[in-house]
Fold each of these.
Amino acid sequence: MYDVVIIGAGVVGGMIARELSFYNLKICLLEKENDVAMGATKANSAIVHAGFDAKVGSLKAKLNVRGSQMMPQVAKDLGVKYINNGSLVVGFNEEDEKTLESLKERGEANGVEGLKILNREEILKIEPNIGKGVTCGLYAPSGAIICPYDLAVSAIGNAMDNGAELRCNFEVTQIKDLGSHYILRSQDKEISARYIVNCAGIYSDKIAKMVGDDTFCVHPRRGEYLLLDKECGDIISHTIFVTPSKMGKGILVSPTVDGNLLLGPTAVDTEDKGDKSTTVEFFESILDIGRKSVDSIPANKTITSFCGLRSVGSTGDFIINSPVKRYVNVAAIESPGLSSAPAIAEYTCQLLTSIGLSLVKKENPITKRKSMHHFREATLEEKNQMIRENPSYGKIICRCEGVTEGEILDAIRRNPRPTDLDGIKRRTRAQMGRCQGGFCSPYVIELLSRELNIPYEKITKFGGESYVIAKETKK
Amino acid sequence: MTDLVIIGGGPAGMSAAISAYENGIKDIVILERDDELGGILRQCIHNGFGLHKFKEELTGPEYAHRYAKKVRDLGINVKLNTMVLDITKDKRVIATNSQEGVFEIQARAIILAMGCRERAKGALNIAGSRPSGIYSAGTAQKLVNVKGYLPGKEIVILGSGDIGLIMARRMTLEGACVKAVCELMPYSSGLARNIEQCLNDFNIPLRLSHTVVELHGRERLEGVTIARVDENRRPIKESYEFIPCDTLLLSCGLIPENELTKGIGAELSSVTNGSVVDQNRETTVSGVFSCGNVLHVHDLVDYVSEEAEIAGKGASEYIKGINKKGASIGITVDGKIRYTVPQIITEKKDVTVYLRVNNVYKNVKINVYDKDRLVLSKKKLKVAPAEMEAVKLSASMLEGVESLKFVLEEEK
Ligand SMILES: Cc1cc2nc3c(=O)[nH]c(=O)nc-3n(C[C@H](O)[C@H](O)[C@H](O)COP(=O)(O)OP(=O)(O)OC[C@H]3O[C@@H](n4cnc5c(N)ncnc54)[C@H](O)[C@@H]3O)c2cc1C
């Protein structure tokens, strides 16, 4: 019997698990996929928003501003890459300028500090490659970028270091209330828990229905991205948004914490919660749109493209409530959900206490985690010391990103343990560079097979039927 | 201080080392990231290597072995499992391996021989899902030939580069069914002999002017939509066709791996994606040379070895302080000829200029002009992008020449 079961191992479920793991509780995180961070958390804009977007007084506004203030410390404690690069919403005409003024007012009402309207000359001083047509911009010094899956993986790893459990490939299909506790079932397994926290992302409405709450629904909105080679990462240093209009929020251009350049997302509603495919129309338009806000984005430097699904809720705000006893919804966490995640965790814990869960702090909870990038962030002397002690740090497996065998082995042996190729990719960046695993994937397959003691044919890209090898060749 | 540091122990690096050694440079080190010498040849277990060089048909590993043995016999220093991380403008090479950690070598001269990599799927912008089962042809080749695993059973290949063609045959021999090879261009980018021996002999259809427009399947690949393309290489909607398959191999071109070269500050050509070099294969940074697939993509390894010998000799002269440079003849091209190597001639001696064309042409002349004066004209029945052409210029032709233009003239 668990005290709390959290459904969904995305950044939200992960941050909540971490927060709860500081208390004397038996916790389990259930995830339907083969690894953590497989939902919206792995495919988004990776921006820690300043907080001027959300409606004044909304939960979104409150948790965004608070989350963005908490993020630097959280990132530091978890060893997650976070860069406070500042953001800029650019405008192209007088109408945009008016919109920016009202955005600024809204931001100030939300409690965002340091907002400033800049003219073209001022923008050029901080962003020389800004688009030709840009006339004005709203500068937000607290805007930042982060690696979202790194945050989720590290938060869950931290929670597990404190004793929380993680069960992947556990898709909750049924929840039964037995009065004193709940039974959660998948196709072939079941576990019981006193409290449930529903962080199932795009499927959070489905989970809510399992406990009889049909007050909201969540529908998917597709967002497609292009990721460009590191060569392009320094074309700009700030995150560049365009002024929101009737046409939506528009395409942003941003450096990533790993030095690539990110363009996206589109915004297209869909019916299918499993559809993460990219479209031809997107490829045709995205560069042209991006080039309006940033000059000199080269055409042939794409290294990959992907699509994420936003969880658009029917209420317009985050839905964090307790519709039935010992149960909490953390649903419709669309953007700025990543930015808000630390604050959502704090808020959810308060809500859990208010519905009867008693929180007693552990004596010495672990609150920090060694960065997954500790080797690459080390000094030369430290590196050489580490290589002497463990020669596998001297063997480069991924040439594009310079990832060593030692780092991959660390990742495989560390909580939460990856068992597939994409899991290694998200934790170490091996296969994430310009050749996209062309060179290193055979080695990564070999390491996984050896360490986990499973045959090549059973290794997958991301669980399920995503096998990478059909059979051994004739000898 | 080491006289000559060679980066990469494939055919180019090995030939360059041997050539430098034979030209009197003994203080050489080859840095290779893999656990054996041989580079990409190690996974090319098919025949067809060495026809020019050894007048016999060898497999890739056999060809590599001949050179590796020579390197060993000469006692040339080789560091395996060693990855070069950076090269500075003053020729310090920073590398790492398990024994020595991160270390630095100050070189007198450097030969870049890092080879190339395949164009990855991300660069191709194919729409659709992101299932498993999509590999570059070279990755599949490594899995099959080195690791002993077959990546899939029903295969479509995009791109008719040589590795793709060879993998079509290899996978068929391993019991897989290759359903089609799609090529965006109206002609193949592979060697004619490979089309014959790898596709036609196995009745594998080559679909020219076709591309893959969409991937299907959420976990493992379940099929691809292919389409015919128009003159502007845009897919034609009416021609969409679904082919069920569990594997897509990509053989869509090779890109020289010049990340390190950028660090040194050597000028790169936007056409070859390799360095701009002179007849000795010296880059725009003096004492830094480049050869093999990192300089420009070759179709035959024999040419790689030849080019590396030139670079090795050039480096040896540089180290010995011999400087015969006395000219600066830039070479330009007309577009039908995409590029030449070298791009500049700095010494008036006999020079062979290699070039590639941008399309298939029949009955042509390769004309070399010094302004309006025709210096040389070479007749060809057929030229194709897949096959490199060589034009020999003699020292006497270069007398009084300031610049050269290579032009492809079609006969009326
Ligand atoms: C295109 C796009 C751009 C965005 N950009 C930003 C941004 O720049 N800044 C920002 O702050 N936010 C951004 N967001 C929002 C942010 O990504 C999300 O708010 C955040 O990732 C939500 O995390 P989550 O844990 O709620 O959801 P998810 O990451 O989707 O996690 C939910 C998890 O629940 C699991 N699950 C579902 N059903 C079940 C079940 N029945 N049983 C077990 N497990 C189940 C899923 O597999 C999944 O792992 C963006 C989102 C998108 C889609």
Amino acid sequence: MSEAGVRAAELADAAVAGDRRALARLLTAVENRTATAEVALRRLYPGTGRAHLVGITGAPGAGKSTLVAALIAEARLAGRAVAVVAVDPSSPITGGALLGDRVRMQAYASDDGVFIRSMASRGHAGGLAATSTAAATVLDAAGFDLVLLETVGTGQSEVEVARTAATTVVLEAPDMCDEVQAIKAGLLEVADIVVVNKGDRPGAQRTAAQLRAMLTASASPRPAPGAGGEAADHPRPKRPDVLVTTASTGEGVPALLAALDRHRAAGRDGLADAARLARAEAQVWEIVAERLRDRLHRTAAGPTTESTLRAVADHRLDPYAAAALLLASLAGGPPRA
Amino acid sequence: MSERPIKVLIAKPGLDGHDRGAKVLARGLRDEGFEVVYTGLRQTPEMIATTALQEDVDVVGLSILSGAHMTLLPRVTRLLRERGLDDVLVTAGGIIPDDDIPALREAGVAAVFGPGTTIAEVAAYFRTHVRQPEG
Ligand code: B12
Ligand SMILES: Nc1nc2c(ncn2[C@@H]2O[C@H](COP(=O)(O)OP(=O)(O)O)[C@@H](O)[C@H]2O)c(=O)[nH]1
Ligand SMILES: [Mg+2]
């Protein structure tokens, strides 16, 4: 192994052995997608898959960070080690980010059984950073029982977390979701558990009842008669539990933790095997796509590509023909303009 | 990704409720392209040091207007050193009399910024004094 490789392996081993500084530095390497991170992740991967990865998503202000803090409190009572990855958006213009989720969790800042890490999305859409899954893998390897992943919370399109997390919690606040929104909701479709937070506010129970009615109606327990074998593989909407919490007081949070544990246990019994496979698939394809993109950019960089792009800009060449030219250059053929 | 953002922790040590400056600074630094972690109010030196460690920040910025800087700031720098974070740039701002600055520098606070400091000044200082990130 190279000298850098040895350093990466040492960092990974130290992180697993409980060295928090090493863990933090490894997470930085992961965020920056360095060579160290790749060596370390490959070393750590076989020892992962033990933590329960829980995604927490929902609109800004719904109470995600407050609920994460309440879940930490509850899990700590049971002596479980908890890690958090909290993602906030990066400015597309300056690249800067204000990472403020931690403010609500600082009561646990000095608890040895808790590790909280803020992450900027760094241009990645879908509510997570491109490296959030890898960060969760590292925390899994470091021995945390529960890894909570808080998304940016930009809205209905934020379904990516469901591909990373074993259990996805979608947070709503009372009357934040009118019926129309729930029906078109991409987010609710990926929920394993729906939580109506701010249970201390009027309308919380009513919102929960509406959601229950709607989610039951949309979930079809079996394929339509006569649909044939094909329909059996067709992804059907889940039928999530709907719970009410008051994150700011902790009310309803023990029941939520119990529901998380139940969902996890059901997954262990094999029900979630398809989800695990989907997660593996997403992870591998992500890497493949990234490598291909890099290779294409490297191979295709140069004056020939520039003149191809110029031709498209001037409407002398259509974008499909240009794409075919760039693809040919990736396959090894000489690009012709 | 070649140029990664500098990561900064803005923390409010002690029972000081003045958070306007810290928030102005946090937002301003975000707009300057920094990744800024904000702790919120009433942080003990232990909380600040552990947060800096977990977040692996390049800079710790302590905002304090309560007058307790001579006891709190040296505690933060000592804890940072004890946790092996001696390469982190530690800075402070708020209401800190000039007479106290030499002792704070002695304790490991690299620079102190008072009222009227512009975000551009702070950003420029951070960019030139932060440790070089390793490959
Ligand atoms: C607004 C204000 C308040 C507001 C605070 C609102 C809030 N949420 O922030 C209120 C009314 C609540 C308040 C209350 C009190 N206040 Co008051 N308050 C002020 C005042 C007038 C302005 C502070 C301010 O917001 N400035 C604007 C911001 C943008 O500036 P800044 O904080 O200085 O930050 C700038 C720089 O210092 C620097 N900076 C700041 N932090 C950092 C950190 C880093 C890393 C860097 C690089 C730079 C940096 O960059 C910023 C941008 O330029 C000051 C007087 C003054 N002129 O400063 C008194 C002052 C700070 N308050 C004072 C006092 C005594 C109090 C009270 C104790 C009064 C009382 N007896 O009740 C209470 C305490 C409240 C508490 N819980 O702590 C005293 C403190 C005396 C001291 N330290 O010796 C001051 C100095 C007034 C005085 N001359 O006596 N206060
Ligand atoms: N009344 C009430 N307020 C809450 C509750 N949970 C969170 N909040 C408040 O809602 C606001 C947003 O909370 P936060 O956790 O930051 O939401 P996030 O943006 O989804 O992470 C804060 O002011 C919280 O104090 C709750 O259960 N009841
Ligand atoms: Mg939040």
